[in-house]
Structure formats: structure tokens, C-alpha cells
Write a structure and sequence with these properties.
This protein is an alpha/beta fold and 438 residues long. The protein is built from 14 helices and 13 strands.
């Protein structure tokens, strides 16, 4: 990876910190609309820290010690938290007195629930099995044919992956509380409708409900870029950042946005479609059927489309676009001017897209993520410098850009975060209060 003076490469979900979930700030300063029941807030704080004490929770969250003690006592009784002996550091200033109650820490009772996160992809589907503490127990991937499918075929492939994953770990579907599923396209998280997806041969109505019926497990469906953003928020570089954007370049171009430690989806659940913002009137044809979309200049298929011409390999484009991209990258490394020009052009369009993100949302950081980050021409110094040159910043510090590159499992890990969030809300949040469980 190219070293950049002003941009640093971050650590992603494959290099997890202790605990999982957003590292919460003082609840007293959180917008009222985002505040949660104290039970949920305390539980999520414990899960985010991995292990903590009641006193630490009270200080960090600005909650009285009496309230923390009372609520955590309930959570222990109900089986959501457990107490463990606190291990003293040998560097402690002074030994603890042997008098009084022994120091204890709180941890999530990980076995309380199990969830599955799944990413449905163009070339392979991936899935991760996790416990309630967010610890990955096992994972599995299955290849799939790269063409549009009916909803029935896609559901059958997902069911096969779930069953094989559970068999691998010696569990059954009845052991699973929830499954989070992600796929490319316009996905309405609230209704489960998918008006358009490059994976489907027709629009799908209530697709999440169809998954739920076929699997016999509560299922939640979201856009794959949102999953990647959740992976950053729960397991990666966004855990301690309240406002950030994630831009991913794969077979398409996606974006996710976090505001006040919460994923923002838009009024109809289908916002942040950066790849389908227009950067050229009457421009290149996008796979969505429109012209001039950003992804028609930056995504895998856009680069492969030009590479097929530059390298005179039209047959290989239809058979293996990823192999063609690898060859294009190798040619660029060797100084092939045609290959270099393709990456330079894509980089300029990416700079334009990133500048628009910085200008519209002013995030603390923009995280460039996904498998195509191996093509460092897309985020070369010149690309990021052009992005900053296009952006009106005044006297402010320019938006920071980080580069994260990792494997396919990060998407499924984000789907785990989606599932964990749903189960937590239902058992400890407003959903639990409405049902009379709290």
C-alpha cells in the first residue's frame, strides 16, 4: 500500500479491539431522539468495552452509581450480563485492602443469543456465526454464478449456506435468534422491498419476509454498503468516531453514513447511493440503466469495460472481469500508458465523488474500504490531493481520508452487527418496553 503523509491506513474488523459496538459517549449530550432505555445503554456499554466495572460505567456515561447498580443487577438476574473477578494490574499504585467486597467486572453473557450475518454477493456468498458478545464462532463461504437470479433461487442459496454453516458448528436454526442479510442494490430496510438490485432479475417485494419464511429465523435485509459501515462502527476504525462516511469500491460503488454513532439510511431507507449520483450528463452507461453515474467510471465493471479494449481481450472480459482487472493493474505497474490512463481517469472521478461527500456531509473521516483498495492508483496522492482541491474548506482542517483493505468476511461481519442490534433492541430497548419485558 502506498504510504501517504496526510492519510493513514486504518485497522479493520479483522484486527478487532476488545468488545464490539460503538464506543458510546456521555448519554447526557446525546440528542433526545437517539437516547435509549438505560438498560440498553448500560448493556451496550459493557459489550463495547468487553469488560468494565460499575464505577467506570457511571463515570463514562454520566449516570448515578445507584442507577447503574440497580439496572446492572436486573441484567445479571435476567442472564444478559455476568460478574467476573477483576484481575489487578501488577503496576497498580497500591495493593487493594482485603476488606470489603472483592472487585468485580461485568461482561456480556455471550451464550444468551446467537446470530448469523450473511452477505449475498456476485461471485460468492459469505456468512458468519456470532454470539451475543459479537465474538465470531465460525464462518463459511459458497461460490455462486455471476448472473442475475430470481428471488427464489437467491433464497435457496442463502438457505443452503445457513444450513452448512450451522452444521459446521453443531447448531440448528432453532439456536439462532436473528439473521442479518446484505446485498447490493436499492434495499428498503424498513419494508424489506428491493426495487432494484444487480443480483435480481426483477424487483422483489418484502424480500426480507421471504427470507424469514424460508429460514424460519427473524431476518433483516439491508444494503451491503450499510453493512460495511456497520462493520466499521461495531468492529473497526469507526468505533470511537461519532460522524463518518464509508465509501466502498467493488463491482459497484457504495456509501454508508454514520451520524451520532447511528447508521443513517434516509427517509425511505435507501439513501447514500453515491454510486448513482451523476458526474457526467449523457455519460457512460451504468448497470442501473441510467447514464453518467459515478460507478460507471469507477467500479469493477467500468474498469474492465475499458480494459477489454485497451488490452484487446474482449472474450476474457465476459469470462472473468476480475482476472482482466488484475492484468490491467499489472500492466499499469509495468508502465503501460493505456492501463495507466484508465486508472488515472477513474481516480479523477473518484476524487470528484469524495469531494461531494466531504462538501455535503462534512464527516470527521471518510473511510475508503473494500477489496479494490489493492489498486492504489485509485487513492494515490494525486487523487486525494485533487479531492481536497475541489472541496471548499475555508480555514478548516480538510476531511481526513483513511484506507481500509480486507477480505470478504467484513461484509458478513457487518450483517452480524445488524442482527445483534436488532436482538438487543427487541430484548433490552424500546421494543422490549413495548412488549412489557422491561
Amino acid at each position: 500500500m502506498t504510504a501517504l503523509d496526510s492519510y493513514r491506513a486504518g485497522q479493520g474488523p479483522d484486527r478487532m479491539l476488545a468488545g464490539c459496538g460503538p464506543l458510546l459517549r456521555d448519554v447526557a449530550h446525546m440528542p433526545a431522539a437517539l437516547q435509549r432505555p438505560l438498560r440498553q445503554t448500560l448493556f451496550e456499554y459493557v459489550r463495547a468495552q468487553g469488560s468494565t466495572t460499575r464505577a467506570e460505567m457511571a463515570r463514562a456515561l454520566g449516570v448515578s452509581a445507584a442507577s447503574v447498580s440497580a439496572v446492572t443487577g436486573e441484567l445479571i438476574t435476567e442472564g444478559f450480563l455476568r460478574e467476573t473477578a477483576e484481575v489487578e494490574s501488577p503496576e497498580a499504585d497500591s495493593p487493594r485492602s482485603g476488606r470489603g467486597r472483592p472487585p468485580v467486572s461485568l461482561q456480556v453473557a455471550a451464550e444468551t443469543s446467537h446470530v448469523i450475518g450473511m452477505k449475498l454477493g456476485d461471485l460468492r456468498h459469505t456468512a458468519v456465526l456470532s454470539d451475543f458478545a459479537g465474538q465470531r464462532l465460525t464462518e463459511l463461504s459458497l461460490p455462486t454464478r455471476p448472473h442475475r437470479k430470481s428471488a427464489a433461487v437467491l433464497i435457496a442459496e442463502a438457505r443452503s449456506l445457513v444450513d452448512q454453516l450451522l452444521t459446521k458448528h453443531g447448531m440448528t436454526r432453532s439456536d439462532i435468534s436473528c439473521i442479518g442479510i446484505g446485498m447490493a442494490g436499492m434495499v428498503d430496510y424498513t419494508t424489506g422491498n428491493v426495487p432494484w438490485s444487480p443480483m435480481l432479475d426483477a424487483p422483489a417485494t418484502a424480500l426480507s419476509a421471504q427470507f424469514e419464511t424460508a429460514l424460519g429465523i427473524p431476518a433483516y435485509l439491508d444494503n451491503d454498503a450499510n453493512l460495511l459501515t456497520l462493520a466499521e462502527l461495531w468492529f473497526g476504525g469507526g468505533r470511537g468516531t461519532s460522524d463518518f462516511a464509508v465509501v466502498t469500491i467493488e463491482h459497484g460503488v457504495g456509501m454508508g453514513l454514520v451520524l451520532f454513532n447511528q447508521l443513517y439510511r434516509g427517509a425511505r431507507g435507501m439513501g447514500m447511493e453515491l454510486g448513482h449520483t451523476k458526474v457526467q450528463l449523457d455519460g457512460a452507461l451504468c448497470r442501473c440503466g441510467k447514464r453518467g453515474c459515478l460507478e460507471a467510471y469507477v467500479a469493477d465493471y467500468a474498469l474492465a469495460r475499458e480494459a477489454a479494449t485497451a488490452l484487446d481481450q474482449h472474450a476474457s472480459f465476459s469470462e472473468s472481469p476480475l482476472a482482466l482487472l488484475e492484468e490491467l493493474f499489472a500492466e499499469a505497474r509495468r508502465g503501460n500508458e493505456a492501463a495507466l490512463s484508465i486508472f488515472r481517469r477513474a481516480g479523477r472521478y473518484l476524487a470528484l465523488g469524495l469531494s461531494n461527500v466531504a462538501q455535503m456531509f462534512d464527516p470527521e473521516v471518510i473511510i475508503l474500504s473494500g477489496g479494490r483498495m489493492q489498486y492504489d492508483y485509485l487513492y494515490a496522492r494525486e487523487v486525494l490531493a485533487e479531492m481536497q482541491a475541489m472541496t471548499l474548506t475555508g480555514a478548516r482542517v480538510p476531511t481526513k481520508v483513511e484506507i481500509h483493505a480486507w477480505g470478504d468476511l467484513v461484509w458478513a461481519q457487518g450483517a452480524v452487527a445488524l442482527a445483534l442490534g436488532q436482538v438487543t433492541e427487541e430484548r433490552l430497548g424500546v421494543g422490549a418496553l413495548r412488549s412489557g419485558a422491561a
